[in-house]
């Protein structure tokens, strides 16, 4: 039986278009990941209508990072996930399994051995695929939360925007608060100043600016 946290993270709450905007991924790309081909990379929490759970959102975040940060091709990832099932099974392998990479193939540590999730010989493993997980945190109750990239996938991106299934119905908020980024941007567009909004919400102007920046980027991607 699922815990409350597991139920919350598996609840279908995001449309494909909405998820693509949050993850800064082209809609056609995300659609292919969750619906394309004979075997989609992500098993949607709801197929009809097509809706992603928060776990699905994290899985797509991982896929996006594998592709953009580690330059791993999607066919390689698909093959690695198929090979992974020969050694261990996960409900959500992209977020449940720790991977390593040489920026060409994926590897796992299993029963004390390093196993290549691809045919071929040995190769030098350069790094643990953990960059993307720096944007993901887990609380003591097992609930995950995501700090999405706002402007670019760099180590210096601040963690000021939060997506958490237990806060704001899983919609983006200012981290450490329940303040909706959409509400902040709406009020700013109605000519309320950044300083006034920061004072009213008891946050720093930088947090208000990041909320506005997030919404402006999201709107630009949707356009």
CATH class group? Mainly Alpha
Indicate the structural class.
alpha+beta
- CA(first)-CA(last) distance: 42 Å
CATH superfamily: Winged helix-like DNA-binding domain superfamily/Winged helix DNA-binding domain
Helical proportion?
25-40%
Number of helices: 9
In CATH, the topology is named Arc Repressor Mutant, subunit A
* Poorly predicted spans: none
Helix and strand pattern: HEHHEEHHHEEEEEEEEHHH
**Annotation, overall tally of beta strands:** 11
Give the C-alpha Rg.
19 Å
Q: So, CATH architecture?
A: Orthogonal Bundle
Hey, roughly how much beta strand do the residues contain? Answer: 5-15%
Strand order, sheet with most strands: 6-5-4-7
- The backbone outline, from C-alpha atoms, is elongated
Helices and strands in order:
Blueprint: H1 4-9, E1 14-15, H2 16-23, H3 27-35, E2 46-47, E3 50-52, H4 54-68, H5 74-84, H6 93-96, E4 100-101, E5 106-110, E6 113-116, E7 127-128, E8 136-138, E9 144-146, E10 161-162, E11 173-174, H7 181-189, H8 194-201, H9 205-222
